[in-house]
């Protein structure tokens, strides 16, 4: 593409060596995702004369350049400015093109879930994006100047032609004078005004009679007159073909303003033609772009970038401050149910109300994304405490607002960080508030939680583990382990259960529950499920005729794609399909609707044996046994622990339920058995098979299924 400096630039890949300081966004998959989102948003702001693939490739190159610029010891603002100029050369000059560019790049570079260096990173990113916007504006200005030069030259040529045939083309000259948005003056050799147009009168802020008979130089500020006069002299002497200058003019009230002046010598006549263009409109555009860079377009509030920079400033002030991370509950229901326009109206109302609550405080309210806001309050002696402030916000937000005749209101969840530590980077404080907000939302809508360094530190570590899970899988840290499936009557091993195992190089063997719940919310969980089935099925292919139980998570069950993958796995190994027992979470089947149940039937149609996990004593769970071809059920861990309480009503109901299940020809398992007493109680209650620490001898799951199959028995150890 003409003007593009990145089309031939090699794109970094995950296998290439990267410079020190490169952020996690250097992962090609993440960069492509950001570039794709960037391309989509830019394409919605203006027509781009490129294919979508070309746009993505161009933007991926620009993103790589920005990542290099932010990774060094000092942000490479010159490189960032070149990226801004490149966007203009790619015709990304729609009304909101810069705004969406800044939103995408700020979200990517300052994402709360990414680790950050502690060297004033938000300020560095702000400087980088500021340089990008500066390069963008300068490129627009340059193009505007170039276009104006072309227009001015055409205008000058027309004036010269008019001078040669003045009488024949006087009407055309009048039209040019009257219609041009630029000021035009025909002057004598000493600058005396021979003819002027209305646009020049407007620019000079004077009536036509105040300009007529005057001299052009008298309207120029006295300090610029000599330099301008020298330019006209060079033009007269033939040293230059055209004069271009930016003198300061003086209005009638004495105010100064800068304008662009272009002059040309009238050939064959003693005089000049001069065009004056006011730069106020360009300055207005620059101010608008600067405002867009730092503010949210929908609500007018500061954006995350502005908020982060302000937060860093507040951290250097003596007064204590409190940070609130606010998330509107149920905003997606309004948007999905009543439309985007209604959702946007509700967001604007919520923004105004948040501002009104803290109007009497030294505070900033910002919109981060979707329904998430940030509030930073510099506390004074009269600032309400956190509880009072949240009550005021809740009371204000829940007041109904009527949009298109419908009364709407929202609640909010809050993550709060009090007494902000001065030594912590703004990005870390925002991450802390986000972690507290996550805990609040996990408790339900309308809750708030203070940041707990201990608890949220563990949550941050766990989230970090999930973020590094794909790399751990690729590096071989993720593996498979097997627990024996034991017959309670005689302790005989009759099968095995496959479980995901993570041997972390620094933290050692990680508890499965620590990372699996969070991994449920990533795209990796589906691939992990299919991989676990494939590994386990391959391991048992040459062993004894024993079943392999592989538990699925709710998201793995809800995804219809693994069924085809499992079909291929079954075809590639010798064991009969019914030896594969897939564990389906009962809770997901109860709340997931017909689609999840249909997925289960598809799996059963492959000849696989279905096992309901975390089975209780509710009527809904019993109804599942009639709806699905269930081979076995495994009692929930909480129910199993009740075995020590002989008077429990829950256990009495469980015994009745077990009898009904066995009458239907369905096998009953008990999971997480820890003591021989528990095993004997459940055996008497009708449970046939069991798993848990009781049968591993305290050694934990085995990494080699052969050691389980060859062991023969896994009865309770002596003394249990």
Automatic annotation (TrEMBL):
Protein name per its UniProtKB record: PAS domain S-box protein
Domain EAL, first and last residues per copy: 462-712
InterPro entries the UniProt entry points to: Biofilm_reg_signaling (IPR052155), EAL_dom (IPR001633), EAL_sf (IPR035919), GGDEF_dom (IPR000160), Nucleotide_cyclase (IPR029787), PAS (IPR000014), PAS-like_dom_sf (IPR035965), PAS_fold (IPR013767)
Originating organism: Amycolatopsis orientalis (Nocardia orientalis)
SUPFAM superfamilies in UniProt: EAL domain-like (SSF141868), Nucleotide cyclase (SSF55073), PYP-like sensor domain (PAS domain) (SSF55785)
Cross-referenced CDD domains: EAL, GGDEF, PAS
Residue intervals of the PAS domain: 169-239
A Pfam family this chain is assigned to: GGDEF
Region (Disordered) residue spans: 1-26
Highest taxon listed in the record's lineage: Bacteria
One GO BP: regulation of DNA-templated transcription
Ranges for domain GGDEF: 319-453
């Amino acid at each position: 593409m003409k003007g593009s400096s990145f089309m031939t630039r090699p794109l970094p890949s995950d296998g290439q060596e990267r410079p020190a300081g490169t952020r996690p966004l250097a992962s090609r998959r993440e960069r492509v995702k950001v570039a794709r989102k960037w391309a989509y948003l830019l394409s919605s702001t203006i027509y781009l004369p490129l294919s979508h693939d070309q746009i993505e490739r161009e933007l991926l190159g620009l993103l790589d350049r920005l990542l290099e610029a932010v990774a060094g010891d000092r942000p490479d603002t010159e490189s960032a400015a070149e990226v801004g100029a490149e966007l203009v050369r790619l015709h990304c000059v729609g009304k909101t093109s810069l705004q969406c560019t800044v939103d995408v790049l700020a979200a990517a570079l300052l994402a709360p879930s990414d680790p950050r260096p502690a060297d004033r990173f938000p300020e560095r990113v702000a400087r980088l994006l500021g340089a990008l916007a500066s390069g963008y504006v300068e490129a627009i200005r340059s193009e505007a100047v170039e276009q104006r030069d072309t227009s001015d030259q055409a205008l000058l040529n027309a004036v010269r032609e008019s001078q040669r045939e003045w009488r024949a083309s006087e009407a055309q000259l009048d039209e040019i004078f009257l219609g041009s948005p630029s000021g035009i003056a025909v002057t004598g050799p000493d600058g005396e005004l021979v003819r002027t147009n209305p646009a020049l009168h407007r620019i000079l802020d004077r009536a036509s009679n105040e300009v007529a008979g005057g001299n052009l130089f008298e309207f120029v500020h006295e300090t610029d007159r000599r330099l301008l006069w020298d330019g006209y002299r060079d033009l007269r002497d033939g040293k230059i073909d055209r004069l271009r200058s930016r003198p300061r003019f003086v209005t009638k009230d004495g105010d100064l303003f800068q304008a662009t002046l272009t002059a040309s010598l009238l050939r064959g006549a003693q005089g000049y033609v001069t065009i004056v263009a006011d730069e106020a409109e360009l300055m207005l555009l620059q101010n608008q772009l600067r405002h867009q860079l730092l503010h949210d377009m929908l609500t007018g509030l500061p954006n995350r970038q502005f908020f982060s920079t302000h937060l860093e400033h507040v951290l250097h002030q003596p007064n204590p401050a409190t940070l609130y991370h606010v998330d509107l509950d149920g905003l997606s229901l309004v948007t999905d149910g009543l439309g985007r326009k209604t959702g946007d109206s509700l967001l604007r109302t919520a923004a105004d109300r948040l501002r009104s609550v803290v109007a009497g405080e030294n505070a900033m309210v910002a919109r981060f994304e979707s329904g998430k806001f940030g509030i930073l309050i510099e506390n004074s002696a009269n600032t309400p405490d956190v509880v009072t402030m949240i009550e005021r916000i809740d009371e204000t937000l829940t007041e109904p607002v009527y949009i298109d005749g419908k009364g709407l209101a929202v609640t909010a969840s809050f993550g709060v960080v009090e007494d902000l530590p001065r030594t912590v980077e703004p990005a870390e404080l925002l991450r802390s508030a986000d972690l507290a907000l996550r805990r609040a939302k996990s408790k339900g809508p309308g809750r708030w939680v203070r940041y707990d360094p201990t608890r949220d530190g563990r949550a941050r570590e766990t989230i970090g583990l999930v973020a590094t899970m794909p790399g751990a899988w690729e590096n071989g840290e993720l593996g498979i382990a097997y627990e024996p499936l034991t017959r309670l009557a005689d302790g005989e091993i009759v099968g095995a259960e496959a479980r995901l195992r993570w041997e972390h190089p620094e933290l050692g063997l990680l508890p499965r529950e620590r990372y699996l719940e969070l991994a449920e919310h990533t795209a990796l969980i589906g691939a992990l499920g299919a991989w676990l089935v494939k590994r386990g099925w391959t391991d048992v292919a040459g062993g004894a005729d024993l079943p392999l139980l592989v538990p699925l998570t709710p998201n793995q069950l809800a995804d219809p794609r693994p069924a085809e993958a499992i079909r291929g796995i079954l075809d590639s190994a010798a064991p009969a399909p019914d030896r594969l027992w897939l564990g389906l979470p009962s809770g997901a089947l109860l709340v997931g609707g017909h689609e999840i149940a249909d997925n289960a039937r598809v799996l059963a149609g492959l000849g696989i044996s279905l096992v309901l996990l975390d089975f209780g004593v509710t009527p809904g769970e019993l109804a599942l046994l009639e709806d699905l071809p269930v081979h076995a059920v495994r009692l929930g861990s909480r129910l199993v622990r009740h075995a020590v309480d002989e008077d429990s009503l829950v256990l009495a109901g469980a015994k009745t339920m077990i009898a009904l299940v066995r009458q239907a020809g369905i096998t009953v398992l008990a999971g997480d058995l820890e003591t021989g007493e528990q095993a004997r109680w459940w055996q008497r209650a009708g449970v046939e098979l069991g798993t848990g620490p009781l049968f591993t001898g305290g050694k934990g799951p085995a990494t080699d299924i052969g050691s389980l199959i060859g062991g023969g028995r896994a009865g309770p150890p002596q003394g249990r």
